[in-house]
Design a protein that fits this description.
Porin; 2 domains; twelve-stranded antiparallel β-barrel
């Protein structure tokens, strides 16, 4: 009888020692950082097994050395999904953690086992994410001041001041600009030209946008008391690279004008075409060319401006520009072509 019980007793002793060894191994296993289990714990609260499996794969990918402990916690959270979770851990490859869903290690905080023996970790508090000290502002612009020489309707020298402010918050872009030219000849014949413009762009795609524009011009020697042009249409960025851009825009327009102080105000429909090319030649040199064609039943106007901007210091640059403006037909005693040469300092902000 004793000989028959001996093998059974030895077997019981062997399994007891083996169980104690396994229990000891679990007890000394490195705890899983609490932050790693946050995604798994959150996913376990729902009834979407696919989301839970994905969270398990992401967590294992973040800490493969804790794979067994993570799986044991997952099964403890949802024992009803134990078979599916085991298959996921065995056969599905880990997922690289995306930036939004990735579990994050917080310092070296270790998990605190729960009193129930499941070893569920308490999620360690995460420090607030650091934000960039210099976030890009949606506001930008420049102010320009320089000397100007004009030929055509007048042969004058003078000064020119202009400013442009841009507010850009995708998909919107707002541009407000204005300029004032004051010229005087030896005979003290004064010439003043005031221009102001507002334009907005709304991006439809990465390269296509719609625009709306209003332009006001009051040039004493243009033959008109004032002119206002409003236009709306479609634009596209033909070239959109870091060092080079080329934008085309076109749309219908309306020109409102008055030839003199006593004349009647008139409005004529027309169209507007615009080409804007910018080439950043180097870190300190930029070449730009803008061409605009406006035409209606009464008149056609073509304006082309070419400028070269050279960086002096971080926010200060020198700019040389040449503008040719052609109008036809124009009032009597008025030339069709005006040219403007300008040298100025530009402050960017």
């Amino acid at each position: 009888m004793l000989k028959r019980q001996l093998p059974l007793t030895l077997a019981l002793i062997f399994f007891a020692v083996l169980g104690a060894f396994a229990q000891s191994t679990r007890a000394t296993e490195n705890p899983v950082p609490g932050a790693l289990l946050g995604t798994v714990i959150k996913s376990a609260k729902g009834n979407d097994i696919a989301a839970f499996q994905r969270a398990l794969r992401v967590t294992i990918a973040a800490a493969p050395e804790h794979k067994r402990a993570i799986l044991r916690h997952a099964v403890g959270l949802r024992p009803d999904w134990a078979a599916e979770l085991l298959l996921t851990a065995l056969f599905d490859p880990p997922l690289p953690p995306p930036s939004a869903d990735a579990p994050r290690l917080v310092g070296t905080a270790a998990a605190t086992p729960s009193p129930g023996g499941q070893g569920l970790a308490q999620q360690a508090p995460q420090p607030p994410q650091e934000t960039s000290a210099e976030e890009e502002s949606p506001w930008s612009g420049e102010a320009e001041l320089g000397g100007i020489a004009r030929s055509g309707n007048t042969e004058n020298l003078g000064v020119s001041a202009s400013a442009e402010v841009i507010y850009e918050a995708a998909p919107w872009r707002h541009i407000l600009s204005g300029s004032f030219d004051y010229l005087e000849t030896r005979l003290a014949t004064e010439e003043q030209a005031i221009e102001a413009e507002y334009q907005f762009n709304y991006d439809l795609t990465e390269r296509t946008f719609v625009y709306g524009l209003t332009h006001y011009e009051d040039d004493r020697f243009s033959g008109f008391d004032y002119e206002i042009t409003a236009s709306a249409g479609l634009g596209t960025r033909v070239i959109d690279e870091e060092s080079m851009t080329w934008t085309l825009a076109a749309g219908p327009s309306v020109r409102v004008f008055r030839e003199d102080d006593e004349g009647a105000t008139e409005a004529v429909p027309g169209a507007r075409l615009n080409s804007d090319f910018v080439w950043q030649i180097s870190e300190t040199a930029k070449l730009a060319n803008e061409t605009e064609l406006r035409f209606d039943s009464d008149r056609s106007e073509l304006e082309n401006e070419t400028s070269l901007t050279l960086q002096i210091v971080e926010s200060l640059a020198g700019r040389f520009s040449f503008t040719a403006q052609y109008r036809s037909p124009v009032p009597e005693d008025t030339d069709e072509l005006d040219t403007t040469t300008k040298a100025s300092l530009v402050y960017g902000f």
